[in-house]
Amino acid sequence: MSRIFEAPLYPYRRSKDQDTVRAVRHPVVVVGAGPVGLALAIDLTSQGVPVVVLDDNDKVSFGSRAICFAKRTLEIMDRLGCADPMVERGVQWSLGKVYFDERQVFEFNLLPESGHKRPAFINLQQYYLEHELVARLRALEEEGNAIDLRGNNKVTAVRRTVDGVQLTVDTPEGPYEIEADWLVACDGANSPVRRALGLDFVGRVFEDNFLIADIVMEGGVEFPVERRFWFDPPFNRGQSALLHKQPDNVWRVDLQLGWNIDKSEESKPERVISRLKAFLGEDARFELEWVSIYTFQCRRMENFRHDRVIFAGDSAHQVSPFGARGANSGIQDADNLAWKLALVLQRKAPESLLDSYDLERRQAADENILHSSRSTDFITPKSETSRLFRDAVLNLSEHFPATRPMVNSGRLSLPSVHDGSPLNGPDCEDMPSRTRPGAPASDAPVSGGWLLDRLGGGFQLLTIDCDVPEHLEIEGIGIERVALTATGLEELRTRWLGSADSAVYLLRPDQHVVGRWRSFDREAVRSAVLRAVGR
């Protein structure tokens, strides 16, 4: 891994801001060049918003960290122009298997239906994702877009003002000051921005420890490309284990260790190797690439927006890694925020629109925390009664499919549906639930390709067997028409029409549904557009 990316990818370069007497003001400053900060910067820049990204490092992250990227994340990356190289390099999978002791008790398919461009999941080391995002950012920069990624620029002080934010930034050549209309903190679970403002998380810290190891296998080991989870395996009695394949013959191993352990002792290479050989066999040949011991936390900030400072990703919320909810939900934060912040800066929407980011993404965080907490409680029962119940469910699941939904080895990431959002418009009950207001667009094959490839980053009217003007503009908000017919396209009909003969959908720039009708009504669409931009 770092064998490939040891060199600085965005090395320190002196900026013009360091040579001014007065602090230079920028529309948006993003702190943190991880997946969330980079995705947000690319999205904003693509919508014409100048962005400065500050990062205290100058290269991609060490260790694979996040590895499981869900279908919705890949769809967002498609829109940002990064998905193809991710999917080409990544390990695609949809099958998961659950074991109890040495027995496989059942398996599940995360995408059992056909007709989607992207797979249920890919496994890809986080450093590869960051590399692709930086490459995309550089391409936008070369095209003349105002996007500035500054490595070795560490934020050391944050001060909120009436109409913006002031920052002190330390560099190898000394500190300087800048200002921002809006500051977005994407600086991780230990967010310096959050600490500088005296803010904290609320939630649970779980009393358990897990060893996470990325290992490079030798000798052409052939494990299946699937997610495999063990409860109480013979090589880790009383605990659990997880195995995933990544590119470059790298494998991710998670081993539950228990609460009362000596972390420094368990982190020693000889101890880690001993545990891994018990799992993989004494003859297994592998090289340790990255090792960490972590404790589960399921927590979030009470609010993600604090005046002109907004939090996204791990700086705003934390969940356990089982379920692949961290990076995926963080990228969806960026997807939700970018278009709203762009409209506010373009004076097409009031600042209050950003309150919907806070509401919708806190709703998503609560959903992720709920699933993550339930997973952790099932994986690590806190009483003998809980353990007996869990083991009974696992035994029954081998023979009785009805009990399998009760098995929770980490409910895997799904995009949040923003039910009840103040941005949602009218609904039609005879249309499918999966494309109701608040839901992300569901992909389907269409003439010449895929539905989601036809959807861009603005407001759109998706019409199916219905006449609608080709282009609308409602009080400065342009709306593009995407006209389709369902004739001969069963997936499109099933996912978007249901029992209706025709449909008109209003979609937000993040491809979530605003409202839907059986036929076009200009005044109804106008009302829904204004509602969706907070006017």
Protein topology:
Blueprint: H1 2-5, E1 24-31, H2 35-46, E2 51-54, E3 68-70, H3 71-80, H4 83-89, E4 91-93, E5 95-100, E6 103-109, E7 121-123, H5 126-142, E8 147-150, E9 154-161, E10 164-170, E11 176-185, H6 192-196, E12 201-217, E13 227-231, E14 240-246, E15 250-256, H7 263-266, H8 269-280, E16 286-301, E17 305-306, E18 309-311, E19 317-318, H9 326-345, H10 353-379, H11 384-397, E20 445-446, E21 449-450, H12 451-454, E22 459-464, E23 471-474, E24 477-484, H13 490-497, E25 503-507, E26 513-517, H14 522-532
Parallel strand pairs: 1-2, 1-11, 2-8, 5-13, 11-18, 22-24
Antiparallel strand pairs: 3-7, 4-7, 5-6, 9-10, 10-11, 12-15, 12-16, 13-14, 14-15, 16-19, 17-18, 20-21, 22-25, 23-24, 25-26
Helix pairs in contact: 2-5, 2-9, 3-4, 9-10
Q: What does this protein look like?
A:
It comes from Rhizobium fredii (Sinorhizobium fredii). InterPro entries: FAD-bd, FAD/NAD-bd_sf, RIFMO-like. The chain is an alpha+beta fold and 535 residues long. Among the domains are: 2-89 and 119-201 and 298-367, FAD/NAD(P)-binding domain (3-Layer(bba) Sandwich); 433-532, Glutaredoxin (3-Layer(aba) Sandwich), CATH 3.40.30. The protein is built from 14 helices and 26 strands. The strands form five sheets. Strands 1, 2, 8, 9, 10, 11, 17 and 18 form an eight-stranded mixed β-sheet that branches. The protein has an eight-stranded mixed β-sheet with strand order 6-5-13-14-15-12-16-19. It has a five-stranded mixed β-sheet with strand order 23-24-22-25-26. Helix 2 packs parallel to helix 9, helix 3 (71-80) packs across helix 4 and helix 9 packs antiparallel against helix 10 (353-379).
